[in-house]
Predict the structure.
Amino acid sequence: MPTPQKAVALIVSDDDSQVVREPTLIISDEPVIIGNPTFPEFEVAKVDPSGNNLTGRVGDISKPFLTVQGAINAIQSGSFNAPLIDVGNNLLSENVTTSLDFIAFGGIYEGQSTPFSKLTFTNSGNISVLSIGSQLTSLTCSSLSLNISLFGGGLGDATNNGGTLSVFSGISHGNVYGTLKASGSIFIYDLISSQNTITIDSPGSNVFAYWSRIQDVIHANNVTLQDSRITGTNSSSGTTTYSPIMFLPVQVSARRVTAQSSANSNITRYTVGGSDSSFQVSMNMNVVSAVAISTSLNCGYTDENGTARTMILPVTSLSGSFLAGGLVTTTGAFETPAMHIRCQSGSTITLYTATGTFTTVNYNAEGIITQTQ
């Protein structure tokens, strides 16, 4: 797991006015209070190894519970609108079950505050889960919707076998390190940090990502990326659409291959969205060893008039001059400039190494596709 980041806050207030009463529970060097969730103390249950499930009390953090399940049982038997379970800096490994439709977990760091190994919801309606500086290892349910909000918190795996799955990042960005699955659509919001390693493995689901970074799509139907990108493999069965909101250049596809011995027809690939769009494409190649080699770095695409094009990318061997015909014929590092292309909607852009001579060759290569308009 990547190095945990600092949680913005566990903020506890004394009543419905949401006035902060316990500053010692604000866990941050410079806590940002505006825009973060707050919880009245009478809704907070503390869990600690020193606690006792018989004497633990919701609303009195001086009387902690021993287990998260004990705290949840007490919350379920009472009447609470927005209960929060504070696990402090404890790494807990319970398998927990609840019928609640809302529950929040607070901690110190996402990598040092773990409330459970697995949380199973028995509620079939709409479920909301909030993490403030805690690592939610695994969530599962069969519900109409599962909505997860991360305020400086982390998420491992999440599965909803009954409906939609939504993951939001709050003002203090959270991270997702695991696999998302749902029987309905999957929505991902504001998970842009480079620490995100989101995997979508959800056959039949439509995926909608907004300002987010996805590592791999193993199974899915249609994928819509709004100012978002897939950094690894995209194996969705439907159409991948990129819809820029702010019209900023966004890397939409990138892949590196290593230890190659022959031409690679798909180093990276991207399917253009529902309107004609402009892109920058670039590649590099490092020939580690070769008895004989002769190849070029190519881009295949369809222009806005519907004509299929093959572009041989200009290549330099770091000497400041381009190679004749873009041909790589020896060992070494080879780079291309970024080239501007205009592509037809629904067409495919493919970066690849051309067929040629590959005699006892070992090379690495990379391709990057960036949408600019």
Summary: The longest helix spans residues 68-76. The chain has one helix and 31 strands. The first strand starts at residue 12 and ends at 13.
